[in-house]
Amino acid sequence: MHMVHSPLRSPGLPEILPTDEAAALLNRKPQTLRKWACLENGPIRPIRINGRLAWRVKDLQALLVEGDRS
After folding, report:
1. In CA terms, which of 13, 28, 34, 69 is 20 to 30 Å from 6?
2. Which InterPro entries match (predicted)?
3. What is the C-alpha to C-alpha distance for residues 61 and 64, in angstroms, rounded to an integer?
């Protein structure tokens, strides 16, 4: 099994990340995540805080783990 070190495994991480940081962790452009949110067709869904997108770290972790399996 191929293990990839992920910065998401670091202690003290927040529970949510803004779009720019989430996109960097997924190696995607922020606009890709915004499109997922707008069209509601991405592999994960954001939450909205005061009209701004935020991404749950646990959802990002799950997506990265699934990606390692494929």
Report:
1. 34
2. DNA-bd_dom_put_sf (IPR009061)
3. 5
Could you tell me which residues come within 8 angstroms of residue 58 by beta carbon, excluding any fewer than 6 positions away? 15
**pLDDT tens sequence across 1-59:** 344 445 555 566 579 999 999 999 999 999 999 999 999 999 999 999 999 999 999 99
Q: Report the alpha-carbon distance of residue 45 to residue 68 in Å, rounded.
A: 20
Architecture of the CATH domain 16-69: Orthogonal Bundle (1.10)
| Model pTM score | 0.76
Closest by CA to 26, choosing from 62, 53, 70, 51, is: 62
